[in-house]
Amino acid sequence: MRYSAERMNLKPPLITITLLLLTVFSTAAFAVERFPPPEFDTEYQLPLTTVPPPKPVVQEYLNLAILLTALALASWLALKKRSRRGIFILMIFSLAYFGFWRQGCICPIGSIQNVALALFDSAYALPIFAIAIFLLPLLFTLFFGRTFCAAVCPQGAIQDLFLIHPLRVPPWLQHALSLLAYVYLAAAVLFAATGSAFIICQYDPFVALFRLSGSINMLILAASFLIISMFVGRPYCRFLCPYGALLRMLSQVSHWRVTITPDQCIQCRLCEDACPFGAIDPANPPKPTTVTTRDKNRLLLLLLLLPLLIVGIGWTCSLISVPLSRTHATVRLAEQVLLEETNRDQTTGLITETTEASDAFRVTGQPVESLYQTATDIQHQFHLGTWLAGGFLGLVIGTKLLILSVFRKRTDYQANRSFCVACARCFTSCPIHRQKLKQNQQN
Amino acid sequence: MTNENKNPTRRDLLKGSLRGASLLGLGSVAGLLAGGSSKDELVWQIDPQKCIACGNCANFCVLKESAVKCVHSHAMCGYCDLCTGFFDPDPINLDTAAENQLCPTAAIKRSFVEDPYFEYTIDEKLCIGCGKCVKGCNAFGNGSLYLQVRHDRCLNCNECSIAAACPSQAFTRVPAHQPYLLKDL
Fold first, then answer.
1. Are residue B59 and residue B142 in the same domain, yes or no?
2. Shared-domain flag, residues B29 and B76
3. In this predicted model, what pLDDT tens digit does every residue of A121-153 receive, in sequence order?
4. Are B20 and B77 in the same domain?
5. Is B123 an 8 Å CB contact of chain A?
6. Is B100 within a domain?
7. Residue in A with minimal Cα distance to B183
8. Is B42 helix (H, G, I), strand (E, B) or coil?
9. CA end-to-end distance (rounded Å), chain A
10. What does the pLDDT read at residue A289?
11. pLDDT at A21
12. Which range is most confident: A62-71, A340-349, B29-38, B73-82?
């Protein structure tokens, strides 16, 4: 790497400078006893430092129990009871409890990063309830589809409540934008696994709103997302949410799923109009009896394209691994220190234009060499990480293209497995569902 | 709820095996994580050895009034009359008048103990965690004033926004049963 090559050139003067620094700053250590604590003649009692404890961990297990109950209830309401009203009430509850009362952390969306960090950094021990918060919605999705999104996630709930006039996003745009979530997921895992940053939390659009406090940027982000959600159904869930990306993959193979009509579909298209998330796949005409060579060739081409995409995007992403590695504070610090050492005045040996971070580093007396080594190691991790992340993105894009190009027979209008968030709007609008409901009431 | 097909199609079979694989994947992730997991929650704390009292704690907390406050290790304090944590570097008089104090909110209370010693205590209601006193005490005193995350206030954000802004990487996650990194003799 270019960065490490520069480091090699600087080696001889650095060692002497480090030694110099060590002697200069060894006096600046903390907690020096310049004035010995007095021995009092009077009966003076030393006040003790108070240590108010954090909120008890029991509370987290209570949260977990409520999450489990809400997930079970949401699945039952969407799949068995088929009640939009029930979903709506549960959604309000989740928004109030998980959002405004609990004020966010730790949430399943953010827990992706904790899991990634725990998997790659053995020093980071993840609490058991955090593992459960990550896994429970995934498990439920594997069996019941995205019922977590429907009524448990407060982020989804607040966007759903703000939806007043849904505009139809054209399918090609919807498919393209939904890929952004995978980019976000890959980036979040990369930054978390390298211990650089938790970007999902930093750019969480609604947590500032739940806490009614936060930086002005976060509040602007929240406001703009809410304004967009008035016209585009659940923009964060559909196009950005990294946890949604995971749920989408799992709901593809879920055991049960939301069914629109309880009986024969009459193809009235009312459900399609009712869905604000473009998640209804229309019934299609019977499969053409002859498969043309063009279709075959296209499929073959896409299959060949898949490994190319994986390698190509992996390589492209690895090109930006050095700038990306600057999200890690240690890499930033190493680059700053390197810059300062390069610009060091040759005659006086003075360092100018230091930052708070580099000053703090010099006070510790840590050798510059070991800092450079750590930074280079992190950059190597980023190099590998960007390859993997890019490969993952290539796989996702390639698979998406393959899925889109394969003909799928649908006799009925169906909820799309990956886009459907089980909001229950579709079957509420289904005339067959309503008829059945009436019959049941009469009986 | 499922397709009424009696005979599973090729697609059903594929879905079933993929579902099984996903379950297995989730299970192994759970197993891997559970192996290195802790029963205890992790909370944020400042390592006083690394803190440089830059002042970011007062500005970057998501709370309007930061969860970071100054605490005082009285056992380390020299009880100086001219306390560099309490007084402005160039005080007009050595008294508690606001213009002589370093603390912008007058959160440090100075009281006479016995000649020549003065006690300094921190009123947490007033402290904003700016670390001005910490800097003063570290520079010329014993370093008995230092910043700590107060857990009665801290929301324990998954990503602490002060930690993200900390120039000296002084923020660390500590187990909840030992939530403070206290300075002591």
1. yes
2. no
3. 888 888 888 999 999 999 999 999 999 999 999
4. no
5. no
6. yes
7. A31
8. strand
9. 76
10. 62
11. 43
12. A62-71
Q: Is the pLDDT of residue A378 over 90?
A: yes
* Same domain? B93 vs B171: yes
- What own/partner pairs with CB < 8 Å and gap ≥ 24 does A429-437 have? A429/A270, A429/A271, A429/A273, A429/A274, A430/A260, A430/A261, A430/A262, A430/A270, A430/A271, A431/A266, A431/A268, A431/A270, A432/A261, A432/A262, A432/A263, A432/A264, A432/A265, A432/A266, A433/A82, A433/A260, A433/A261, A433/A262, A436/A262, A436/A263
* Shortest alpha-carbon distance between residue B92 and chain A (Å): 23
Cβ–Cβ below 8 Å for A208 and B62: yes
Q: What is the per-residue pLDDT for B33?
A: 87
B33, A131: Cβ pair inside 8 Å?
yes
- pLDDT one-digit tens code per residue, A264-307: 888 888 999 999 999 998 887 766 666 678 888 888 999 999 99
Tell whether B30 and B53 lie within a shared domain: no
Residue whose token pair is 């049963």:
B177
- Domain ranges for chain A, please list them: 58-286+414-442, 294-408
Q: Give A 131-160 residues with CB within 8 A of chain B.
A: 131, 135, 138-139, 142
Q: Is residue B19 part of a domain?
A: yes
> E strand or H helix at A68, and its extent?
helix A58-75
User: Is the confidence at residue A9, as pLDDT, over 80?
Assistant: no
Which residues from chain B sit within 8 angstroms of residue A111, using beta carbons?
158
Nearest Cα residue in chain B from A112: B158
Quick check: B140 and A255 CB within 8 A? no
Instruction: For the beta carbon of residue A128, count every other beta carbon within 10 angstroms.
Output: 20
Asked if B43 and B169 touch (Cβ cutoff 8 Å), the reply is no
Q: Is the pLDDT of residue A97 over 90?
A: yes
User: Between A and B, how many residue pairs show a Cβ–Cβ distance under 8 A?
Assistant: 196
Chain B nearest C-alpha distance from A164 (Å): 31
Residues of B in Cβ contact (< 8 Å) with A119: 29, 32-33
| Domain that includes residue B170, residue range | 42-175
Q: Do B71 and A49 touch (CB under 8 A)?
A: yes
What is the number of structural domains in chain B? 2
Which residue type, as a one-letter code, is found at position A296? K
Q: Are B42 and B176 in contact (CB under 8 A)?
A: yes
Q: Is the pLDDT of residue A17 over 70?
A: no
Residue B46 is assigned to a structural domain of this protein = yes
Interface of A with B in 106-135 (CB under 8 A): 106-107, 110-111, 113-115, 118-119, 122, 124-129, 131, 135
Q: In this complex, is the C-beta atom of B9 within 8 Å of any C-beta atom belonging to chain A?
A: no
B4 touches chain A (CB under 8 A): no
Claim to verify: residue B22 and residue B84 sit in the same structural domain: no
- Which uninterrupted H or E stretch holds B43? strand B42-46
Nearest to A310 by CA among A388, A413, A402: A388
Mean pLDDT computed over A156-161: 95
Nearest CA in chain A to B45: A54
Asked if A30 and B48 come within 8 Å (Cβ–Cβ), the reply is yes
Q: B27 with B110, same domain?
A: no
Query: Cβ contacts (< 8 Å) between B30 and chain A: which residues?
Result: 131, 135
Q: Is residue B184 part of a domain?
A: no
Q: Are residues B87 and B170 in the same domain?
A: yes
Is residue B167 reached through a cis peptide bond, with omega within 30 degrees of 0 on the bond before it? no
**Residue A292, pLDDT score:** 76
A127-136, A181-190, B6-15: which is most confident: A181-190
What is the complex's ipTM, to 2 decimals?
A: 0.87
